[in-house]
Amino acid sequence: MRKEKEWPVVLKELIEAMVSGEAVHAAKAFSRLEAAVRLGETGGDSSLHGVWESFIDLLRRRGYFVSTSSEIKSALEEIRAVGPGFDLYDLASALAHCDPTVSEQVGVPMRRRFPALESFATNGAKSDGQKEAPS
Fold this sequence. Notes:
By secondary structure, this protein is mainly alpha-helical. Helix content is about 60%, strand content about 0%. It has five helices and no strands.
């Protein structure tokens, strides 16, 4: 029996969770999506666009103004100021941590597909600002 690929299943689940407003469930799905990518599964760059659009739509439904790049930046700054534990912060952080892995795998020329989320990728750094030592 052939095992179904994880990427399309998790991607669909992730987008559906964001569409239904379940930010916590969506954030948890990112680790599964990243694991699928590490196994070499992807749906290409176009499928990532759906994740970003779903994230922006969720922000819009939550009352954030996100029609322009500057509005998106302001919304993300406000969410970042609230910090960990806020479901939208945790979702943005999960997307930011998954982003470089997915971008590399699908061949996006930039390090990040979603550079607006770069500041959320730092929440795993040591509290004194030092980077983790390389393995």
